[in-house]
């Protein structure tokens, strides 16, 4: 089943929340695509773009909110794994305000990832097709992981079908090899 919204003309993906289906506003990017550039807001309110990480491998850890257990766990897991990855940046992306990202990262000792808020610009949502279009989490991001190689090509994607489940960390990390 697909859906569309006023800010995005593409049809969406179906994901679930505790077994109940809902949809994204667009189609998720695919392996082999060039990763679309985007701009988001860092915890210090400065902006960062995907292009800032040109020449590095990039893991996009996308999730609904840091204030949910699985989202917080995914940031902790990628923070731990990122510490051992060379020439790799892990960007943790949500609609949470930069202040929430800063609070969480400070409290949790998170320092190996870049926390990014999408609150200022819907460019990421349009380009990556991951903003939730309906249901109780409407307006937040679906849970997904996208791995981008040094040349800006997408080499791995996972749209987690059940939002309460964790992503496949090992598959994402193995895509970097």
TrEMBL record:
Pfam families: Redoxin (PF08534). Its EC number is 1.11.1.24. The keyword Disulfide bond applies. Disulfide bonds join 71-105. Keywords: Antioxidant, Disulfide bond, Oxidoreductase, Peroxidase, Redox-active center. The active site is at 71 (cysteine sulfenic acid (-soh) intermediate). It is an enzyme of class 1 (oxidoreductase). The keyword Disulfide bond applies. It catalyses: a hydroperoxide + [thioredoxin]-dithiol = an alcohol + [thioredoxin]-disulfide + H2O. Residues 29-177 form the Thioredoxin domain. NCBIfam families: PRK00522.1. Homodimer. This is Thiol peroxidase. It comes from Candidatus Aphodosoma intestinipullorum. The gene is tpx.
